[in-house]
Prior knowledge:
By secondary structure, the protein is mainly alpha-helical. It has one domain (3-133, 212-398). The protein has 15 helices and no strands. Helix 10 (234-274) packs across helix 11. It is globular, with a radius of gyration of 21 Å. The relative contact order is 0.22.
Amino acid sequence: MSELLIYSIVGVALAFDFVNGFHDAANAIATIVATRVLTPIKAVTMSAIGNFMGMFVGFLTGAHIAKTIGTGIINVGADPSAISPHLILAILIGAIGWDLITWYFGLPTSSSHALVGGVVGAGVAAMGMGIVLGPDMKALMEFLVFTGLGGIVGGVIWAVIHRAIKAEVKTGTLLLGAVIGMVAMGSLMGWVLRKELLGLTVTIAFMVFSPLIGMGVAFLIVAAVVRKLRKYHQARINRHFRNLQLVSSFFYSVMHGTSDAQKVMGIITMLLFTSGMISVFEVPLWVIFACHASISLGTFFGGWRIVRTMSQRITYLRPYQGFCAETGGGLVLLMNAIFGIPVSTTHVISSSIMGVGAVNRLSAVRWGVARRVIWAWILTIPMSALIAALAYLVMLPFI
C-alpha cells in the first residue's frame, strides 16, 4: 500500500480538522463576542490558543474519545485490512461535505456527528450493515428500563415539590419532571454502560442528552448567580463578569479542543492501524500535535456566519449569562471527555445559551432559530452518512 496515499489521506483528515475549527469557531467565542467583552479578532486568537492547550487536558484524561471513534463505531479489529484507505477518505468527504453545506447556510451543526455519520455511511457502503457495531442487548435493555424509570421518578418528585410549595400541578409540570428524570438517569446509565452500548448507540443517546444537560447545567448556574447577586446593581455585576468571562471562554475553548481534536485523531489512527503502519490502536504523539494545531488554525480563521447565529439570533446575552453558558458547557464537555463519549460541542454550547436565556422568560429565546438548529442536528448523521456512502461508491471502480 502506497505511503503517499496514506499520508495524503492524513492531509485530508487534518483539513477536516481545520474545517472543524473554522466551522466551530462560534462555539467558544459567540458568547464573549455577543457580550462585547472581546473584539472578534481577540476572541478567536484566545480561542485558538485554548484549542491547542486542550492537548494537555487530553493527555490527562486519556484519548478515550479517539478510541471510541476509531474502534467503537465500526468493527476494525476483526479484519483491519478490510478497512481500505478509500473507505476512510469517503468518511472524511462525507463529514467535510456536510460541514461545508451547513456552514454556507450559517447553521451551527455538529462536526463530531458528521464524522460519526461518515464512518457509518462509508462502512455500510463498503461491507454492509454487519460492519456497524451494535450494542449488547442486555445492556441496551437495562439502559432503556432505567431511563424510563428515571422519567417516572422524576415526574413524581417534581409533582411532590410543587405540592409542597402549594403550586398547581399541571400536565406540563409532570412532563418537565419526567424529562429531567429521564435525562439524569439516562446519562448516568449511558456513562456506566458505555463499553457495552458501544460508540454509535452512546453517541445517538447523548445527541439527545448532551444538549439537555448543557441547557440544565447552564440554567442552574445562572439561576444561582441571579439569586445570589440579586441585591447588587446590574452594572457592577456585569463589570466583574466581563473579567470572569475571559476565564470561562478560555476554559470552554480548551475543552472544545480536547473534545473535537480527538475525533480526527481517532480517524487518522484508524488509518494507520488498518494499513499496518502501527501494530496497536494507540494515537501517535505526532498525530495528537498535528490535530490540535489544525483545529487551532481553523478556529483562528473562524466562521463568522455561524457566530452571528449563535451570538445574536438565539438570545440576547449579558456578561454574567455568557459566563454561565461557557462554564456549564465546558463542564459537560469535560465529563464526557473523561468517559470517552463523542458529544457535540456545538449542541452543548447552543443549548447552554438557550438555558441562560430561558431563566428570565422562555420568550427570551428565539425558538424559531432554535428549531432550525435542532433540525440541522437531527439531519447531520443521516446526511453525512449518505454523502460518505455516495463518495465510496463513486471511488469503488478505482479501488
